[in-house]
Write a structure and sequence with these properties.
- The protein contains four helices and no strands.
- The protein is an all-alpha fold and 128 residues long.
- The chain has a single domain, classed as Four Helix Bundle (Hemerythrin (Met), subunit A) (Up-down Bundle), CATH 1.20.120.550.
- Helix 1 runs parallel beside helix 3, helix 2 runs parallel beside helix 4 and helix 3 packs antiparallel against helix 4.
- The protein starts with a helix and ends with a helix.
Length: 128
Amino acid sequence: MITGLYAALLALFLFFLIANIIAKRRFHKVALGDGGVESLSKAVRIHGNFIELVPILLFLMYLMEVQDTSRIFLHLYGAAILVSRLLHYCGLNMSSGTSFGRFWGTLLALGLLLLGAIMNLYLYAVFF
């Protein structure tokens, strides 16, 4: 199952994001919130954005897979999810404001959300 591959890779990335937050909390001695520490605030936001988008993107991908969508399309979709989150991570770490990575990572993720929704509506219309 192709979705399982990308779910596993994204789970490893999520593990890294969580470990990064834990390390920053320990270093800055912050138990809750961000303590006004910009790097911790960024890490929490990157994690939050990941949690807001990745589950629905993977679910849409899974639904496309069980409806026999092209393997190539599924690999491109899964790789694009991973790239979008890596871009967002790098972009937000480099700048608090708008950056190349943050902009394109967010735009790519939102495009995937729209594409996944449209594809699933199309597959529903074709097969039912």
